[in-house]
Amino acid sequence: MFDWLVVGAGFAGSVLAERIASQRHESVLLVDRRGHVGGNAYDCYNEAGILIHRYGPHIFHTNSQAIVDYLSRFTEWRSYEHRVLAAVDGKLVPIPINLDTINSLYGLDLTSAQLEEFFASRRETVEDVRTAEDVVVSTVGRELYEKFFRGYTRKQWGVDPSQLSKSVTARVPTRTNRDDRYFSDSFQKMPAGGYTRMFERMLDHPNIKIMLQTDFREIREKIPFRRMIYTGPIDEYFGWQLGHLPYRSLRFEHVTLDREQFQPVAVVNYPQTQDYTRITEYKHLTGQQNARTSLTYEYPTDIGDPYYPVPRAENEALYKRYEALSATCPDVWFVGRLATYRYYNMDQVVGQALATFARIQKSLPEWAGTGRTPLGGLAVSSPAHGS
């Protein structure tokens, strides 16, 4: 019998498997439907010898030193600051919108103070900011909303920004200076050997057994275990008995070209006419030298593996009903994007997993079946929440 069944080998499941195995010295069976560990952060070398991210670009950034310290046990880091351009009106301009974006787009020579006046003259007054559209038009006005946000958001989420929670566009800042970094976190680096190698080191423990290409529903009644960490879709765990929660999926078109470079930065967004939302060129992320280059075209869709929840009020209400069901499962911990129906960044998922482990330590103070007190685990504060 295993002490724990951990469902899902992404960040949430892998962090908790490692903590339970190394700190509580308990046995863990980690299962995943896919044929690899790492979840959506999985990376691999393609036929050209270029390290690509199979499920789109994953850029690590955080303000939490505790999370950096934890992950640094399993990887060294390569410095990288993410910069993104948007293809708007036939030009490539920085996104998030900054001083250079506006000056380039409109042929102006504004200062930072003048740009604030520019935004102020275009903002719309929104008494109650509730939607993704409200956030943008009340910050930069409707014209920039139409150019940069509406089309991209409709492609990414499948609905108009006016039907989405304000959290969607609140994630993207607007700047009046020339800072063209996509993120402003204090720590912005990439795992030096790739994400997959980091996960392999994390899970290299004698107390962890891994079964890939395995659906937990097929083995949960066949392999005995005491407790479960579940990181899949929460509605699936309960057999969709209250209805299906909407998740967005992605389709990826991977291409290798016989040229050294395709675009000036790792990611170019396409908020206007194209069917795809962005193109990623991986050598910018990895720093590799290669005569060829590899790209990924990203197409959002409703069909396929769930990648992220759709933040709308009615979806949140349905999730709350599933969350109430989860409270009736004392030996199951629901963790991660899909299980807690939240659009978390990677560092937030790691923080949520570590915080969940701290709660496990508090609520289960003894090793399973031994009667002994476990070693103390690593606890961090996190903006994320788990059951």
Your description of this structure?
- Its EC number is 5.4.99.9.
- This is UDP-galactopyranose mutase.
- Keywords: Isomerase.
- It is an enzyme of class 5 (isomerase).
- There is one protein chain.
- The chain has a 7-stranded mixed β-sheet with strand order 8-7-13-14-15-12-16. A 5-stranded parallel β-sheet has the order 10-2-1-11-17, covered by helices on one side. Strands 5-9-6 form a 3-stranded antiparallel β-sheet.
- 31% of the residues lie in helices and 20% in strands.
- The protein has 387 residues and is of the alpha/beta class.
- It is globular, with a radius of gyration of 22 Å.
- It starts with a strand and ends in a 24-residue tail after the last helix.
Which features characterize this protein?
387 residues, alpha/beta, seven-stranded mixed sheet, five-stranded parallel sheet, 14 helices, 17 strands, 31% helix, disordered C terminus, UDP-galactopyranose mutase, isomerase, EC 5.4.99.9
| Parts with pLDDT < 50 across at least 5 consecutive residues | 368-387
Number of DSSP strand runs: 17
Q: Provide the β-strand percentage band.
A: 15-25%
Q: Please state the average pLDDT score.
A: 93
Q: How would you describe the oligomerization state of the chains in this entry?
A: single chain
How far is it from the N-terminal to the C-terminal residue, by CA? 24 Å
Count of helical regions: 14
Helix content: 25-40%
Question: Which radius of gyration do the C-alpha atoms yield?
Answer: 22 Å
